[in-house]
Design a protein that fits this description.
By secondary structure, this protein is of the alpha/beta class. It is built from 20 helices and 27 strands. The strands form five sheets. Strands 3-2-4-1-10-9-11-15 form an eight-stranded antiparallel β-sheet, with helices on one face. A seven-stranded antiparallel β-sheet has the order 5-6-7-8-12-13-14, covered by helices on one side. It has a five-stranded parallel β-sheet with strand order 19-18-20-21-22, sandwiched between helices. The structure holds 6-O-phosphono-alpha-D-glucopyranose.
């Protein structure tokens, strides 16, 4: 999704903005731009990557110690040079960058056209910058006040930064439903949609709350108001981000680095929560809400994308271990379906970014019906983590690759811990099973390390299958969500069409697709439905499909029938998703690399989807 970076201080702004925009590239975008303030405004923007913007700027004037920069992920209007941000007001006095969507931009635009405004772009953002200008000129107020008044007329989501030629030492930043963080340096301000462009300059940050407006002025302290003009005190926090986490550390891509980080990130998700010697699992963030879980007649997971797949694993876990009925909902469907929600429901919202608009809206809906809302988020301080009653962070560290990998395994780890702790308190799990799962869980990071050793074999297999046009992924039980996630990973980064299916469902449709051209990835690890999966593999082989099976170390039966087998270490079925997902991540990675795809920033995708 769109990214914002802005600077006001003593340094040259352009290098700070360009570096910041590069840091934000991971969010996904299709055009970018910068606006520099140096007596006059200089605007540079173009379609494509930040590197294209740099070539476009070339030798032109880039001086100035204040400026704003933006990466745009197109919503209103196609990605082109004109629609790229910053947008400038009609008189040329104001420049503005914006994330989010102004929902009532149509009527506002009509009104402005009546008053003589002409629009160059198709964006809602150009409407906003002219609305601010109109208020400023008509009411003869400061930029800050004009921004405040304009935002009171706006319906929708926004994170914005505005500068004015007539007040060149000032920058106005505001947010609603789209994150914005302000970095406070010595005599300088940074504004960004997340901490990544700020981390190397300062650790002192203020996260804006919804409908807050910050006035940043040279030589002054930051001032904070809300949209109703109430003065607020900025809450300065320490930015929890380390520079190393934002660099590739010797790997070719962030995605590969993050795949390899999983033994550590899974361990971090368990740190302080799994206490093997005491036979204890405790998630500090939800301790006070345990009774709600114990009384819950139902758990509803709401999430999108990969996080939804983690929710599906959660369904198996909570039903199997804690005997609580579970529903797993796409947040986007749930919010518009007039769903039945009881006060006794526990709604668990899963989100890596903590900013997904549909998930946030689903939370608000469930909240309005009195349900208990628990968050499982990766980004500390994110909107979802703040909107929930309580929750557990996944502690996977920043995930830069757009295709989620370590965030998924961290989410699953947290859900396993949650389900185990509730099951133990509810008495729905035997002491020996509980103890055994705890011991096994403790050894998962080491098993993930072992699973990563399949890398060379998978690279080799990727060479064989890189030109396939379709893939089918099959799994049963706990391996079904893994199959879905494997298929999603492949289509996201290699653009090969892939479907995930419960293995037994294959015969009700997908079997018609199977021929010698169709690679079928089957998760066939040892477990309750192993024999049934073996039969499913046979069904594929009878139709001449090519089977790549992920099997438990030492497996003989599948080896005899599958074309290729990838061996991973044995573990409890409940925990297997954490291990079996690894080779699937590697497979999609290597196929994408061989096809020359942009692995870390796949086309059309955004890391954090802040629009519905
Ligand atoms: C986007 C990302 C996916 C992610 C989904 C949900 O589509 O590209 O990788 O799974 O959003 O994001 P969340 O941050 O809520 O987990």
């Amino acid at each position: 999704m769109c990214g914002i970076v802005a600077y006001l201080g003593e340094r040259e702004a352009y290098p700070v903005l360009i570096k910041g925009l590069k840091r934000l590239e991971y969010r996904g975008y299709d055009s970018s731009g910068v606006g520099l303030m140096n007596g006059d405004i200089r605007l540079y923007k173009c379609k494509g990557k930040v590197a294209d913007l740099e070539s476009h700027v070339g030798e032109q004037d880039i001086t100035g110690t204040a400026g704003i920069g933006h990466t745009r992920w197109a919503t209103h209007g196609e990605p082109n040079d004109t629609n790229a941000h910053p947008h400038v007001s009609q008189s040329g006095d104001l420049i503005l960058i914006h994330n989010g969507i102004i929902e009532n931009y149509g009527p506002l635009r009509k009104e402005l056209v009546k008053r003589g405004y002409e629009f160059r772009s198709e964006t809602d953002t150009e409407v906003l910058v002219n609305l601010i200008e109109e208020i400023r000129l008509k009411e003869k107020v400061s930029v800050g006040e004009a921004v405040r008044k304009a935002l009171s007329e706006v319906v929708g989501a926004y994170a914005i930064v505005v500068m004015s030629k007539s007040e060149p030492d000032k920058m106005i930043a505001a947010r609603k439903s789209s994150p914005l963080v302000i970095g406070l340096g010595k005599g300088e301000f940074f504004v960004a949609s997340d901490g990544t462009p700020i981390v190397e300059y300062t650790k002192n940050v203020v996260y804006l709350e919804d409908e807050e407006i910050a006035i940043l002025e040279r030589g002054e302290e930051m001032r904070l108001f809300n949209i109703r003009n109430k003065k607020k005190t900025p809450y300065i926090q320490e930015l929890e981000l380390h520079l190393e986490a934002l660099e590739k550390g010797g790997f070719d891509h962030f995605m590969l680095k993050e795949i390899y980080e999983q033994p550590r990130s899974i361990m971090d998700s368990m740190r302080g929560r799994l206490r093997l010697s005491k036979g204890l699992v405790s998630l500090g963030g939800i301790v006070e809400y345990e009774q709600k879980f114990l009384n819950a007649k139902r758990i509803i997971f709401v999430a999108c994308g990969t996080s939804w797949h983690a929710g599906l694993v959660g369904e198996y876990l909570f039903e199997d271990l804690a005997r609580i009925p579970v529903e797993v909902e796409y947040a986007s469907e749930f919010r518009y379906r007039n769903p039945i929600i009881y006060e006794s429901d526990v709604v668990i919202a899963i989100s890596q970014s903590g900013e997904t608009a549909d998930t946030l809206a689903a939370i608000e809906l469930a909240k309005s019906k009195g349900a208990t809302i628990i968050g499982v988020c990766n980004v500390v301080g994110s909107s979802i983590s703040r909107a929930t009653d309580a929750g557990s962070y996944t502690h996977a560290g920043p995930e830069i690759g757009v295709a989620s990998t370590k965030a998924f395994t961290a989410q699953v780890t947290v859900l396993i811990l949650m389900a185990l702790s509730i099951a133990q308190k509810k008495g729905t799990i035997s002491k020996s099973k509980y103890r055994n799962l705890l011991t096994e869980l403790d050894s998962i990071p080491q098993k993930v390390t072992q699973a990563l050793e399949t890398n060379d074999q998978i690279k080799y297999l990727s060479g064989i299958f890189m030109n396939a046009r379709n893939f089918l992924y099959l799994g049963r039980g706990y391996s079904f969500p893994v199959a879905l996630e494997g298929a999603l990973k492949l289509k996201e980064i290699s653009y090969i069409h892939a479907e995930g299916y419960p293995a037994a469902e294959m015969k009700h449709g997908p079997i018609a697709l199977i021929d010698e051209e169709m690679p079928v990835v089957v998760i066939a690890t040892r477990g309750a439905s192993y024999e049934k999966v073996v039969s499913n593999i046979q069904e594929v082989k009878t139709r001449k499909g090519v089977v790549i099976a992920v099997v438990t170390e030492g497996d003989k039966e599948v080896k005899e029938i599958a074309d290729y087998t990838i061996e991973i270490p044995a573990t409890e079925e409940v925990l297997m998703p954490l291990v079996s997902t690894i080779p699937l991540q590697l497979l999609s990675y290597h196929i994408a690399v061989l096809r020359g795809a942009n692995v870390d920033q796949p086309r059309n995708l955004a890391k954090s989807v802040t629009v519905e």
